[in-house]
Design goal:
Blueprint lengths: L2 H10 L4 E5 L5 E5 L5 E4 L2 H11 L7 E3 L17 H9 L1
Length: about 90
């Protein structure tokens, strides 16, 4: 199953958070909008965060298969230094 298919399946089923590993093997939690998430030491910590943030709602957290790698959303993307300074001044 391709990445687009995985994302579509998660969105359609009401999943709010996705839990998996990034390319470096770290545990990552990302929300469906790419605004909330984090990097964790272990799976248990990642699941705890995702479950807490979703108010323990059944079906709100999805663990991706081992062969899929995750990356954090736009909140954690690196911004150019010029844009970061402009935001800091606002």
């Amino acid at each position: 199953m391709g990445r687009a298919n995985l994302e579509a399946a998660a969105s359609a089923s009401g999943v709010r958070f996705t839990v998996g590993r990034d390319a470096q093997g770290r545990w990552v939690v990302a929300d469906r909008d790419g605004l909330v998430g984090g990097v964790f030491i272990d799976r248990a910590s990642a699941m705890h965060f995702a479950m807490f943030e979703s108010d323990h709602r059944p079906g709100a957290v999805w663990c991706v298969p081992d062969h899929v790698t995750l990356k954090l959303g736009r909140l954690f993307d690196k911004r150019p230094a010029r844009q970061a300074r402009a935001v800091a001044r606002a």
